[in-house]
Structure formats: structure tokens, C-alpha cells
Amino acid sequence: MKKIITDKQKIDELLEKGVEKIYPSKDEFRKRLLKGERIRLYCGYDPTASSLHIGNAITINKLAQFQALGHEVIFLVGSFTATIGDPTDKASARKKMTREEVDENSKLYKEQASAYLDFGGDNPAQVMNNSTWNDKLSFKDLIELSAHFTVQQMIQRDMFQKRLQEEKPIYLHEFLYPLAQAYDSVSMDVDLEIGGNDQMFNMMCGRDLMKSLGMRDKFVMTLKILADEQGKKMGKSEGNAVFLSNTPEEMYGIIMSWSDGFIAPAFELATKKTMAEVKEIKKKLGEGVNPRDMKMKLAFEIVSIVHGEKRAREAEEYFVRIVQKKEIPEEIAEKKLKIKNWKLVDLLAETELTSSKGEARRMIQQNAVRVNGKVVADAEMEIEITKEGVLLQKGKRGFVRVVLK
């Protein structure tokens, strides 16, 4: 077992970088860490997609900080909770997922998380699945657990209030999601749960349940969400979401497409830079340094963590050559079509740039498809084929020019 590190400077860094709030208090938690007691902590990841993304990497990065100080880290796969669907910030109920879909989606999670976490060595991070304990609960168990919460407690959530006003349905199973997440804390008997600030309600339910059952007083740490200075988050619809399954070239290019307002927050949340280094970056940006240069440093840093420094250097060279210098391969396959208008997902399959519409949708979801040099995140986008041609690109090397017959 690795020795617990109680260096005050490292603990202060841990409690400042990317942290929004700590419940019940930051001072109380800091005292606990300084005592040298081993903390058992976790963060949960519902496998609603086939790849982790940069938002997940923020919390994994924080888990890695705790691991480096010798604490016990759990990477929890929400194999049960994903089948319910987290209602947080949702205007309507999530589509329910099957266990088979969940298991398929989570296949690469450990491999992707290993870019930040160490699953070997003298203090390995553990991977757990919450279906292990939740599958064993009986209806009687569920009733007993639900007795620790009130309808008023659940209905006060903003998205439920909004649905009530709009006369949209609130399904009973959505009330059970926070309860299921709360039971994770009970089952693993943790000292701390971390998550994005949008998960505060769910995480506090776990704290309340542990107290109600006479267990330990669990701490809750909320982290900042990656957003620009105007509070705008990244997302698939904007075409700027980064998935850990993206190739180095795709990842680098997407980060370079971010608005300048993402630079400083991303250095703090998604890289291993210290807060002193982050503050220096903010200072330089304020003094008028070229944001493009800082964004290239950011892209290199993130790609290095996920794919290694060598691949990051290649991705940077590719970006400079293909994007900045507007170079494309000299020889590009050409496909002639009689039909003028296509949905992007159909066009990718028709040109055989992807093997199927399913693959096309996955590539589009992962921001790996460009039309005339621009990332397109809408699979249903209408593409008009002209005699001059439309340039389609998939990933790093997949190019085809589509022209009208």
C-alpha cells in the first residue's frame, strides 16, 4: 500500500484545482487529509455512450490527484444506473437502455481512463460496477431505502419543476435514480464522492442516506464544468465535444476549434498543469498573448495525456499542414452520384467512406466527419451535391470527393 502524502502544498493544490465546492466544508476536509488517513473515494460514469469524453476526463483527472497522494480510488461504472437514466438537467425522460447496450458501451472505459489513472502498481485504482449490488436489491429493500427520502425532496429539482409547468410527464423511475446513486455510496462505504457541479443533488442524496443509516459523514466535492467565459458549454450539437476515442488528429483539431474562452478553464480542468502554471497562462492571455499559440499548447497537452507525446507531435504537424496550410492529399477518390440531396449519414455509407450507417453515426457523434473542411455533428444534415463536388473527410486519412453526374 502506498504511503499517504500529507504535504500541505500538494493538498492545497488538490483542493483548489478545478474544485467548486466541498460539503460540508473545505476546511473540515483539509484537516482530514492532513491527518494522513486514507480516503476511500469514487466517481461514477454511466455508459450512455461508447466512449468517455473530456467532461469525464475532468473528474478522472481529479481522481488521479487523490491516487497520487496515496488514497483509495474507485472508478465506478454505472451499469445499473445507466439503465434508469439520470434525469439531471433533462427536459424529458431519457431513453431507457438495456444491460447489453450498457455493457457494450463501457468496454473501453478502463482503457481510456488509464490515460489519467493507474490501474496497476502499489496503489491501483479499482473498477467497480453498481449492478453488482443493485441487482441484488429486492422490492422490499427498495421500499425501505425510499423511506429515507421525500417526494418534496425530489420534486424540488429545477428540471422537474419546469416539466410540471410545461405539463410534461415525470416518471416514477426518474425519482429512483438519485436513490440508486445514493446507494452506491452506502454499498462502497466511501469517505468522498466527486462529480461535476450538476451532480450535486445526486451526490448529496448519498451523503444524506449514509447519515440516515448511521454510517460515516461522507464528503462531497463538486468540480467546475468546462465552459467558456460566457458560461457556454461544449457539446455534440456544436461540433466541439472531445471524445477519448477520437484519434490524435481529430482531438487536436476539435480543441483548436474551441472558442478562446475555453483555453484557461481547459488548462485547469483537463490537463496536469499546476494552478501556478494555470494562473500564469491566464496572465499571459490577459496581457495579449496570441490565443492561437496557447490553444496549440492546450491541444498538445491534452492529446499527450490521452495518446502520448509522440502522437501529439504528429497531430500538431498534421494540423499545421492540413488545416493551417490548407493542404489535402494530392489524390482523392471521386464518387459520382445522380441524386443531388443526401442526408450526411446516408451519404457516408453510400460513398463507402463508412462501412454502414451505424458507423457513420458513431463517427459523426465523435466529431470525426468533416464536410468541405468543417466538422459536422448533425447526422441528418442535408448535403447538396454539386458538379464542382463536395469534399468528405472521415478521421485523418479518409477522403472522398462527391460530384453530381
Shape: globular
The percent of residues in helical segments reads 40-55%
Q: Rg to the nearest angstrom?
A: 23 Å
Number of helices: 19
CATH superfamily of the largest domain: HUPs
Find the structural class using helix and strand composition: alpha/beta
Number of strands: 13
Strands of the largest sheet, in order across it? 1-6-5-2-3-4
Oligomeric composition of the shown chains: single chain
Could you name the CATH topology of the largest domain? Rossmann fold
Strand content: 5-15%
Q: Quick one: biggest sheet?
A: 6 strands, mixed
Unreliable sequence segments: none
**pLDDT averaged over residues:** 90
Structural domain count: 3
Overview of this protein structure:
The chain has 405 residues and is α/β, with parallel strands linked by helices. The protein folds into three domains: 8-223, Rossmann fold (3-Layer(aba) Sandwich), CATH 3.40.50.620; 236-324, Orthogonal Bundle (Tyrosyl-Transfer RNA Synthetase), CATH 1.10.240.10; 333-404, Structural Genomics Hypothetical 15.5 Kd Protein In mrcA-pckA Intergenic Region, Chain A. Helices cover 45% and strands 15% of the residues. It has 19 helices and 13 strands. A six-stranded mixed beta sheet has the order 1-6-5-2-3-4, with helices on both faces. A five-stranded mixed beta sheet has the order 7-13-12-9-10, with no helix packed on it. A two-stranded antiparallel sheet has the order 8-11. Strand 5 (192-196), helix 12 (200-212) and strand 6 (219-223) form a beta-alpha-beta unit. The radius of gyration is 23 Å and the shape is globular. It starts with 7 loop residues before the first helix and ends with a strand. The mean pLDDT is 90.
